[in-house]
Amino acid sequence: MILTVTLNAALDVTYRVPALVPGGTHRASAAGVRAGGKGVNVARVLHALDHDTVVTGLAGGDPGRAIREDLAAAGIREAFVAPAAPARRTVTVVSEEDGSATAFNEPGPHLSIEDWTWFVGRYHELASRAKVVVLSGSLPPGLPDHVYAQLIGATGTPTILDTSGPPLPAGVAAHPTVVKPNADELAAAVTTDPDTAARQLRELGAGAVVASRGVDGLLAVTGDGCWRAAVPEPLQGNPTGAGDACVAALAVGLATGTPWPELLADAVALSAAAVACPLAGDIDLPTYRRLAPLVTVEEFDADPDR
């Protein structure tokens, strides 16, 4: 079983518009409402690939109830803790003109000490039965930056950390197996040069760093080597869920012991398959199968001055 953790789960609303015009009035061509948050999106991808997964985290109030009901309707197992404070909502507007996505994210609920203690007990029980644990997304207001580090430190199985801001370097200090930032998150946490930033995150404690580079694919700095991987063609669509699809592929690879070059090729293809879908958490399986054998993986030296 792969456990995904979403501490700041959300009820996601996605609108598609012909073009996004700041200050303008838009008539949506399509709209969707469903359970969201990065760990939830990872679980959706795992479920679509027929991998056993359980979602946990914090999801309270009416939005939390809607999140749990949506996951049940999708056939995805969940073990959320429901604090009194309601879960957040997010709104994403996707422009059909250029495929860009503009997101508006509420901060999330303020939690009590009792809420957190309740969740940690649930987490320990679930993580003890997992092959891989994925910890994804932002933290609700009031939780300290080190809570991911706390959870990673209490976990004996491989862990993947996908977060941003101060929780990223704080979590890296607890030695997660893989850290999956994007280029902007790398720059904010360490430095603007992605090769150098990935190497420095490993020096700070990450077992491996896999960084999303948008249309340029993935960069991986690991204990076994360093690689860049990319698809051979640009894709139009919604990039919002690409990083979560990448994390799903990484989780499967860790669970099955897949070698890094093969794992990165799979992660790039799965990320591209997510771009082809309008909603984060969905993947287009024909796109995935078509691109997987076409991904180029190139080894490089992350520290050419050695």
Keywords:
6-stranded parallel β-sheet, 4-stranded mixed β-sheet, UDP-N-acetylmuramoyl-L-alanine:D-glutamate ligase, 306 residues
Write up what this structure looks like.
By secondary structure, the chain is α/β, with parallel strands linked by helices. It has a single domain (2-299), classed as UDP-N-acetylmuramoyl-L-alanine:D-glutamate ligase. It has ten helices and 14 strands. The chain has helices at residues 38-48, 61-74, 113-127, 147-153, 167-172, 183-189, 194-204, 242-256, 260-275, 285-291, and strands at residues 2-6, 10-17, 30-36, 53-57, 77-78, 88-95, 101-105, 132-136, 159-162, 178-179, 209-212, 218-222, 225-230, 296-299. The strands form three sheets. Strands 5-4-1-8-9-10 form a six-stranded parallel β-sheet, with helices on both faces. Strands 3-2-6-7 form a four-stranded mixed β-sheet. A hairpin with a 5-residue loop joins β6 and β7 (101-105). α1 (38-48) crosses α8 (242-256) and α8 (242-256) runs antiparallel to α9 (260-275). The protein is globular, with a radius of gyration of 18 Å. It starts with a strand and ends in a 7-residue tail after the last strand. The model has no long low-confidence stretch (mean pLDDT 91).
